[in-house]
Amino acid sequence: MTDPKRIVDDAIDGAGDDEDSALEELVAGVVMGLIFLVGFGLLALGVSWFWIVFPVGFAGVLPAAIALVRIYESRRGGDAGESLTTETEDALETLRRRYATGELSEEEFEAKVERLLETETVADARKTAESRRTTREDEATEYERS
Question: Could you tell me which InterPro entries the record lists for this protein (predicted)?
């Protein structure tokens, strides 16, 4: 997993990637809008210390919000990709072991490996499961008709 301290350091040093994600841009836009709204709202209300909102907002709140978004994205994206790869590798290793010990024939092994590689992502797995279910339902309907 990515270290949150490194993400914050990268944000400060500029060592991270230069492209901002859509979520970062959205959060930055919302935070800046709120900073301006509060600052100019206080100005309109005649509050003499309205200007404090700008340095606090732009030097404190905005960088903190961006850092939190980066931490969120690294945890969300990093874990999902790692666990999917690990699960696929574990399943493939299990299939290889079963084939090597003779539990699976060559045809069974090839079919299972093909099915495993077809469903590398969750979306692929859902598509495959849906198509199999539809095929089984069609076969059951045809069997009932005959």
Answer: SHOCT
* Cα-based distances in Å from 109 to 38, 88, 101, 103, 118: 64, 15, 12, 9, 14
pLDDT single digits (tens) 104-136: 888 888 888 888 777 666 666 667 667 777 777
Q: Coil, strand, or helix at residue 48?
A: coil
Task: Say whether pTM exceeds 0.70.
Answer: no
Report the Cα 104 to chain-centroid distance in Å. Answer: 35
Give the residue among 30, 37, 39, 38 at the shortest CA–CA distance from 65.
Answer: 30
Separation between Cα atoms, residue 54 and residue 60, nearest integer Å? 9
> In this predicted model, what pLDDT tens digit does every residue of 20-48 receive, in sequence order?
888 999 999 999 999 999 999 999 999 99
Residue linked to tokens 């709204």: 37
Q: Find, among 61, 3, 6, the residue nearest to 32 by Cα.
A: 61
> In angstroms, rounded to a whole number, what is the distance separating the alpha carbons of residues 57 and 35?
6
- Tokens 């069609």: give the residue: 138
